[in-house]
Amino acid sequence: MSFPKDFLWGGATAANQFEGAWNEDGKGPSVADHVKGGTVSIPRQYDAEIHEGEYYPSHTAVDFYHHYKEDIALYGEMGFKCFRLSINWTRIYPHGDDETPNQAGIDFYHKVFAECKKYGIEPLVTISHYESPWYLAEKYNGWYDRRTIDFYLNYCRTIFTEYKDEVKYWLTFNEINAAMFPMNFGRLNGVGLKLADGVKMFEPEKTAEEASVRLTALHNQFVASAKAVMLGHEINPDFKIGCMIAGSMVYPYTCNPADVEEAENKMNAQFYCGDVQVRGEYPYFAKKMWKDQGVTVRMEPEDAEILKKGTVDFYSFSYYMSSCASTDESLQKTAGNILTGIKNPYLKASDWGWQIDPEGLRIYLNRVYARYQVPLMIVENGLGAADERAEDGKFHDTYRIDYLRDHIKAMKEAIDDGVELWGYTMWGCTDLVSASTGEMKKRYGFVYVDKDNDGNGDLHRERKDSFFWFKKVIASNGEDLD
Ligand code: BG6
Fold first, then answer.
1. 436: CA distance to ligand 1 center in Å?
2. Is residue 480 domain-resident?
3. How far apart are CA 19 and CA 30, in angstroms?
4. Ligand 1 atom closest to Cα of 428?
5. Domains in the chain: how many in total?
6. Which of 131, 162, 262, 380 is flagged as catalytic?
7. Residue 472 phi/psi, 5° resolution?
8. pLDDT band for position 185 (50/70/90)?
9. pLDDT (tens digit, 9 = 90+) per residue, 381-435?
10. Catalytic residue status for 380
């Protein structure tokens, strides 16, 4: 029972939550740049106009743009084998539909990848992580318009060609299944943005028409992803291109068959995307699902063949928590960002109410591997916590170490079960902005960043206890977890 010798240990980030420099060196605004900060009780809000003097967390984030050398050196010190980051689409194409790319944006990522190479770190690049160009959202209604597929492919062609000798691992869309949920989180992917200004992030959808827009936009992303896989393999046949799904286990709350069915339906919302991207076709239950929801998904006749030809090389996912499903609406709910459900009485939760379930990770790995039989990669996992400086001036984040240790043990068990697992990148390896709440206070990192919820702080970096612990984990290839 041990990890493969070339296992990709590392950390994960996303440009909109990490880079800052939102309008520097020719970068255009992304959808994320139009979202205000919030808290767990005050939802984030989309603003059509950016209001001067108001706080938009992505604008400065934790300024990786100017700290990349220092940050990557810290990853090198921990012994990272892999660093997941996203390319900020609007750094390359400021509007999304521009004729020519922005050279300063291209240069920035060359510098980042050169730095990774210095420490023997393999970059894993997310092509779109909630960073669709704002201009495309405004002018074309984002992914609802098929022209966005071409703009995305143009962007892919540029970055695949530029970085073909620097990057081998790619993910086409972060948490593509965010668009499966009838709420406004999916807007971060540039869907449905023509709707009113001031919309709150988790506000529920109101009409079947909105659902049709959302699922058609998702279909267009599937087509774009499949075409990107084909294009990437043409440009460099050694590329490994994966899908990225927000993963979670959903258990029936009781053995009442109605609860079991409810849990199956919720798992199917994840498999809907996995099936299209890994198997190249919609699952058998899709038609019934559309019918029940009164949804029409607009497709073109050639799409079926495109989806079939552009299947991914591996399945990657985020995993933070699990939940239960039941038909009993009076049961207490559990917190989460997109994957919420009924509270499980057997599990503890994080400070933000996300239920901690390492055993669920083992079950999930087995479930997904049984279904798809392709290599898997965990590209997000971690604990959001309000780290406090101790009296000795340090950050003793033992709770984070405990969380990670238990999940790594579960991965080991899954490998022993026979699952092919390529890697593990811990989410938010350097503290960054929370996607769901916009807070800084919700920290995930091995590395602390001096910044608070209102944007105050000098952004200096410090090593937490988990930094030294993870270094040992990597050095022993997952054997020393103490
Ligand atoms: C995933 C996203 O949903 O979870 C990340 O891909 C996000 O962008 C992460 O940051 C953790 O969620 P949150 O809301 O705690 O930042």
1. 6
2. no
3. 13
4. 10
5. 1
6. 380
7. -65, -40
8. low
9. 999 999 999 999 999 999 999 999 999 999 999 999 999 999 999 999 999 999 9
10. yes
